[in-house]
Design a protein that fits this description.
9-stranded mixed sheet; 365 residues; alpha/beta; single chain; globular; 16 strands
């Protein structure tokens, strides 16, 4: 891989991030067209039914696409969905070479897009910055291979593993830079899930906000797990821009009819709580691929107990809280032997001001 190829693919990755949180169930792809060592067209996946990244880049390049190279983070599609196949546009534009970071595991595409390009005499190169692209597309990759959304658990705790004081005060354990990053995580997610106890105790907005603390235009779904509809009518989350979903098993939902941004999902119960497998099936059927969990220890514990968490982002603040009965971020039933613990792999550390964040993976897919 040449330095220029790596730089161009790195730019394509940056472009793909513009699509995160707004294009599911489609993948967030970035693409660019290079002619005579100059970028002449750029694109990223548009919302479903609109242009894919390759089409956007080629249309921006216009006549300069002829004889040029295309860099794309994911194998171009070769079938008619909501939009025509990208490979047809590539062939018609007379692109000379296509650089593809990774193959698309979608059974309708896998290997067929690159094959069709090669059959038409278009040179292809595969594998540039594939590890970075795989990480960027982790939600989509699990969605199409496992038919389930990708679940990220996010929590912040003190150095001694506490998420609040003995009085329940938790604002704020983490610092400003950590919380700024959380808004980036939210904006890249399709949905955020919390339990009703978090709504009652913390009364969060749960919006994705910009650096000026204003809500961004494209909000992720906010999903409250509330088996018995205990969400207070004065909860601030019910009045935020975007859509708030209350997942419940109760039929007494008429009192929420005056909230235009609130929808009710009826989800079966299991052991007196919302059935998590049924909820995940609903999310999948609605095309939701990236889910961020920002709940308290009870729900997080349940998800860890059921081995449903794919990724962990744990912020650790250099503070000591103490207290015999103060809460930890993960409760659940727990384990009896250290050998049964959930191992975090491919972990890395990032510094946010005075805080440190451990980012790693629980499940392989």
């Amino acid at each position: 891989m040449t330095v220029s190829n790596m730089n161009y693919m790195s730019r394509a990755i940056s472009l793909s991030k513009k699509a995160l949180g707004s294009v599911s169930p489609n993948p967030a792809v970035g693409a660019l067209v290079v002619n005579n060592d100059k970028i002449v067209g750029e694109g990223w996946t548009q919302p479903p039914g609109q242009n894919h990244a390759e089409i956007m880049a080629i249309e921006q390049a216009g006549e300069l696409a002829k004889g040029a190279s295309l860099y794309t983070t994911l194998e171009p599609c070769n079938y008619h969905g909501r939009t025509p196949p990208c490979v047809e546009k590539i062939i018609k534009s007379q692109i000379k070479k296509v650089h593809i970071s990774i193959l698309d595991p979608n059974k309708n595409v896998y290997g067929q897009g690159i094959k069709k390009l090669q059959e038409q005499g278009i040179e292809t190169e595969l594998g540039e910055l594939s590890e970075k692209v795989t990480m960027n597309l982790e939600g989509y990759l699990k969605f199409v291979t496992k038919k389930s959304p990708f679940i990220t658990a996010k929590f912040a705790m003190s150095l001694d593993g506490k998420i609040a004081t003995k009085t329940g005060d938790s604002k704020w354990i983490s610092g400003d830079k950590s919380r700024r990053f959380v808004h980036e995580l939210r904006s890249a997610s399709d949905a955020i899930i919390i339990g009703v106890n978090t709504v009652i105790k913390d009364n969060p907005k749960l919006t994705a906000r910009n650096k000026s603390e204003r809500p961004i235009s494209n909000q992720p779904l906010r999903i409250i797990l509330d088996t018995n509809l205990r969400t207070p009518l004065n909860s601030i989350i019910l009045k935020q821009p975007g859509t708030t979903i209350i997942a419940t098993n109760s039929s007494d939902d008429s009192r929420f009819s005056n909230f235009p941004n609130v929808k009710i999902w009826k989800i079966p119960k299991y052991n007196s709580h919302i059935s998590i497998p049924d909820l995940l099936a609903t999310l999948y059927n609605k095309g939701i691929s990236n889910v961020l969990i920002e709940s308290g220890g009870t729900l997080l514990g349940t998800l860890f107990d059921q081995k449903l968490i794919d990724k962990v982002i744990a912020f650790i603040s250099p503070k000591i809280i103490g207290g015999e009965n103060t809460n930890s971020p993960v409760i659940g039933t727990g384990i009896e032997s250290i050998n049964d613990s959930i191992k975090i792999h491919n972990s890395k550390w990032r510094k946010f001001g005075d805080d440190m964040a451990m980012i790693g993976y629980c499940n392989k897919f």
